[in-house]
Structures are given as structure tokens and as C-alpha cells.
């Protein structure tokens, strides 16, 4: 039996930006493969293309060359609508700042991406409650973000990212806005959720202690991905 395609593969991706001084190459043939259940740390100095790599992996930008494969499907050069559809069904995002909608409750924040993907309201509510409970937020479902602690808000953001059962989770400094103790607990819960659901995760972090807990560490050098 043929081996299943990895959830995410970046093949020789290039990204260049136009500046007043001319073209600025940021990624120069970067390769990266994420396997199901694998958590990879991306540790790279600012200005080396870390955010660009995450944007390409998340289909938020198109590569200038090379390709982004999601579950074996060439996705990097598809139309905006097609890439949006893949993001909804296959990708979850967690950022340093939770970006929760302040006028909605925790449950509603986890509910909304499911409704956008076509899930029935009843099924979406059941999943939202189950996810929030798995992050220790049972009883807090009807609180708006302003009534939650920083750690609780980020737990809601992680639950939201997992709401549509994505194959891939992309996280940019997901605990960077939390104190050390809360960061450690929330990251542990994130890792458990990723492994428990067989999700492939790419986590950008400046925290060497968090990076050391992941399966492997990569960095960017001269526009390419290398083992750290």
C-alpha cells in the first residue's frame, strides 16, 4: 500500500518582495515536510523569512516559485477561493495575540469557523463545548474574552483553531504573550491536543525551552530551511 501523502510539504518555495532598491529575495528554495502528529519548532531570527514561510504554508500568500502541497494536493497557486476552501477544511492558525471576537462568547468564537465551513449549528455547538472542556474551560463557555484570563483566552484560540479538525496547525508564538507558568501549561495542552488528534504542527517560537519539547527544530538560513 502506498504511503499517504504528508499533511504539508513545501517544495523549493521561493518568495521575493519588490522594494525601492529592487527585488528582495526572502525564501530561496525552501523545503519542509510535516508528518501527521509531528510538532516542529521553527526558530529563526527576525527578518529571516519566518512569517513569510508561515504565510506560504498557510496559503495566505502564493510562492513565486516552487509549490505548497496540502495532503498531496498542489495548493500554493490555486485561486483565492480555492485556497480559502482548503484553509477552512485543512488548516488551523494560532497567533501570539488570541484575536478572539470580543463581542462573542468563548463558545461562539469556537462555533463560528465551524458554521463558516458548513457544519450544522447543533454539531458545531457540541464540538465547541467538547473542545473547551478539554482545555479546562467547562463552565466558562458563555464568558466573553474580556472576562477571561490571558491563558484562558489563548486556550479558546487554540480550541477555535482545532474546531474544524484540521490536518495542519500553524502557530506563531502561541504562548509569547503569557507569563512563564501559564505559557508552560497552555503549551503542554496544545501539544497534547495536537498529538491526540494526529495533527501536523509548525510552531514558530523564540523560546528555546518550548522548542526543545517539540519533535524537531528547524531554522532559516540564506532563505532555506535547515535543521537547527
From TrEMBL:
Belongs to the ABC transporter superfamily. Macrolide exporter (TC 3.A.1.122) family. CDD domains: ABC_MJ0796_LolCDE_FtsE (cd03255). The lineage of its organism: Bacteria, Pseudomonadati, Pseudomonadota, Alphaproteobacteria, Acetobacterales. This is ABC transporter ATP-binding protein. GO terms for biological process: lipoprotein localization to outer membrane; protein localization to outer membrane. Keywords: ATP-binding, Cell inner membrane, Cell membrane, Membrane, Nucleotide-binding, Transport. Pfam families: ABC_tran. PROSITE patterns: ABC_TRANSPORTER_1, ABC_TRANSPORTER_2. Residues 8-228 form the ABC transporter domain. GO terms for molecular function: ATP binding; ATP hydrolysis activity; transmembrane transporter activity. PANTHER family: IMPORT ATP-BINDING PROTEIN, LIPOPROTEIN-RELEASING SYSTEM ATP-BINDING PROTEIN LOLD. It comes from Roseomonas acroporae. Coiled coil: none annotated. GO terms for cellular component: membrane protein complex; plasma membrane. It comes from the Bacteria. The keyword Cell inner membrane applies. The keyword Cell inner membrane applies. SMART domains: AAA.
